[in-house]
Amino acid sequence: MAAARDGWLRVAVFCILLGALLTMLNAWLVKAPPVSDAAGMPGYREIIVPLLAGAATAGVLMLERAPTAGMLLCVFGALFSLAGDGIWLLPGTVCACIWAARHGGTARKTLGFLLLIPGIAAGYYGVVGTLAFVSGTDLPGLPPGLSAPLSLAQALAPLELLPVAVVGAWLLLKKQ
C-alpha cells in the first residue's frame, strides 16, 4: 500500500495542475498576441509557454522520487514562462520548493543557492546605484535606471531583494 502524501505536496500538485491549465488556456484562448512573423506561425506564447507549464507539471509529479530534479523543473518552468503570462505557476512552485526543501537536503541546498545568488546581485546593484546617486556620476554598465538614478529610492530599489538572500543563506546553513 502506498504511503499517503503530506499536505504541502498535495497543495503543490493541485496548484501546479491548476496553474498549468490556466496558463495553457490563457496562451491558446484568452489573448490573441500579435503575429511575430510573416508566415503567421505560432510563437513563444502558443508553443513554448505550454511546454514550460508541462515541464513544471512533470517536475511536481516527480518530487517524491527526485526532490531536487522536480524542484528545478518546477522553478525553471515557472520562471521561463513568466514572460508569456505563466504567473499562475508560481503558487504551486513555491509550495513545491517548500516541500522539496523540507524533504531533501540536496534540494534545500540547491534552493538556498538559487535564492542567494540573485539576492547578492541585487545587493551589489543597490550599493553601486546608491554610490552613483550620492556622487552624482553616471556609471555605465549598470542596468537602466541605476546608471544614473534620479532619486535615492530608485537607487536603493534593488536592496528590496536582500531578504531573499537571507533566506537563501539560512537554507544553506540550516542543519537538518
* Beta-strand content bin: under 5%
What string gives the helices and strands in order?
HHHHHHH
Rg on CA atoms, Å = 20 Å
| First-last Cα distance | 28 Å
Q: Any idea what the shape is?
A: flat
What is the overall number of helices?
A: 7
Percent in helix: 55-70%
Largest sheet: none
How does the helix and strand content classify structurally?
mainly alpha
Overall residue-averaged pLDDT value: 84
What's the total number of strands?
0
Pick out the low-confidence regions.
none
Textual characterization of the structure:
The protein is mainly alpha-helical. 67% of the residues lie in helices and 0% in strands. The protein contains 7 helices and no strands. Helix 1 packs antiparallel against helix 4, helix 2 (44-61) packs antiparallel against helix 3 and helix 3 packs parallel to helix 5 (105-135). The longest helix is centred in the last third of the chain and has 31 residues, at 105-135. The protein is flat, with a radius of gyration of 20 Å. 32% of the residues are buried. The mean pLDDT is 84.
Would you spell out the secondary-structure blueprint of this structure?
Layout: H1 7-30, H2 44-61, H3 67-80, H4 90-103, H5 105-135, H6 152-156, H7 162-173
Helix pairs in contact: 1-2, 1-4, 2-3, 3-4, 3-5, 4-5, 5-7
Summarize the structure.
With 176 residues, this protein is mostly helical. The protein has seven helices and no strands. Helix 1 runs antiparallel to helix 2, helix 3 packs parallel to helix 5 (105-135) and helix 4 (90-103) packs across helix 5 (105-135).
